[in-house]
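USER:
I would value a second opinion on how I read folds in token form. Give me a protein, with the fold worked out from its sequence. Write it directly below this note and I will take it from there.

ASSISTANT:
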Amino acid sequence: NAGAPILWKAGIVSIGPSPTAPFLTAPDRKADFGGFFRTIASDIEQARSDAKWFYEILKARKIVTVHDGSPYSKGLAQEMGKNFKQMGGTVLSEEAVQPTDVDMRPVLTRIASFKPDAVYLPLFVAAGAQILGQAKGMPEMAKVNIIGSAGLISPDMLQAAGDKVVGFRATGSDGSPEAMGAGYSKFVAKYKEAFGEMPVASYHANAYDAAMLAFKAIQTVAKTDKNGVTYIGKKALRDAVLATKFEGISGPIACDENGACAQLKTAVYE
């Protein structure tokens, strides 16, 4: 995120496969981000979907959110809380931890005192695993649903939380073959053939589509002179990215004027 304004001021397009902060592609985004595009949906959409799942499927009416102060974590916690309240739910508390905190008992004791139906953790692995592991040892937290988000959908979470991760749920983008683009299954087959395993990175399909978006735009505007030197106009490339549409392996890719190029399909993982 911090690098985008630097690149854009130099006229260089950047395409992000994983940054989800709402301000990056907001209608009122700063001119600093005018050359930024992304092949992943905004946290605004994730927060709206998460709130709906908490309220309609989980039947939660009282929740506590926990963030680590980072733009991703705090922004998603606040946006989800706002949507949850609009649906009729109550946010009992918005708690904060440090990513490096080890003793989570004070914050868990405080959370338990509110008697929430659920706790929402848009955190990363270090803090998320500590909270989950320590909550499992507290009787007062035994019946509280602890729900993570995309930052905790990682092989690292399995290693960090150990057997405490059994039954844990987290919301995120739907990565099932049925929800992906038409070419996803073929991509996975080629990947397994080349590397002997399934893709493990959370945003592999988004990254592939970000690269393809760049390649397709370059093919449209690149010009090679008689000496074999290839030129790519900076503004022409930005315009080409904006105009490029294709069926990606993560789903349809088509950028709006604010740089948002992907659609959100959500899932809850257990």
Notes: The CA atoms of residues 30 and 115 lie 41 Å apart. The first helix runs from residue 3 to 9.
